[in-house]
Structures are given as structure tokens and as C-alpha cells.
Amino acid sequence: MIGSTQIRTLIEDKVAGDGYFVVDVEVKPSNRIVVLLDGDQGIPIVYCVGISRMIEQELDRETEDFELEVSSPGIGQPFKVHRQFVKNVGRTVEVVAKSGMKYRGELTTVTETGFVVKEEKMVKPEGKKKKELQVYEHTFNFEDVKSVKEELKF
Fold this sequence. Notes:
- The chain is of the alpha+beta class.
- The chain is 22% helix and 40% strand.
């Protein structure tokens, strides 16, 4: 059976050497291999095609049939690796905490253990008639969140 570790080992050095990174490698029970790659400036489709061909050359379809998909993570997909957080500093993200609370704001800082999101809200202070803009900085540890994904603004 083809394993995700086997695929990751095949491509990791090449991908890293070219300035990109592996987001995820998943091998489903039906031998459907899904490889997600990304880069700090995005990743060209031509590069994904090249990695796909590289994987196909290393695997033997005569021994084991498989389906292969190599792409970048889709828009709105949750972040899976630290480098995705770093790549998205300065962008608007949606954070779902393990408590179920949702936060939306600008990803301002990323450390090895967590990140900070700056949220701006219009809040009506007690005793006042008009709402005022309040800025909150929420600090999260990676293990305290269910998901984080980039929020697109139109």
C-alpha cells in the first residue's frame, strides 16, 4: 500500500529546494493520493504538474493502481502548517476556537506556539448613544483553535 510518508519523502527535498512547502499529503483507502503544496507567493500550476509527474515516475502503476491530485490548498481551506500562518500575516482571517467562539480580524503576529489577531468592532459604550470603534487583540495558542482560514473580502 502506498503511504503518505512515502510520498512526502519523495517530494519534500525537491519542493523545499524550490522555495515551496508541503501543506499536506493524504492517501485515502481507495489509493487516491492528494498532495497540497504552497509557497509564500503562491504556487504555479505548472509546478504542481511537474511534481505530479515526478511522483508518477517513482510509483509503479503495475504494482498498485492509484489516483493522484497535486494542487495548492483551495481558497477558504483551513491552515494546516505553521508556514501558512506566516504567509498570511497582514491578511484577514477567521478563527474558530475550541470553545466554539469565532473571531475575525487581521493576523498580525505568528510565533512558534501561537498567533495574534487584531479585531476591530463597533461597540456602544455604556452611557453613550453612538457606537465607537474598539480594537481588540486576541492571542491564541495553536492547540486552542479548531481552525483558521483566510477570509476573502470583496
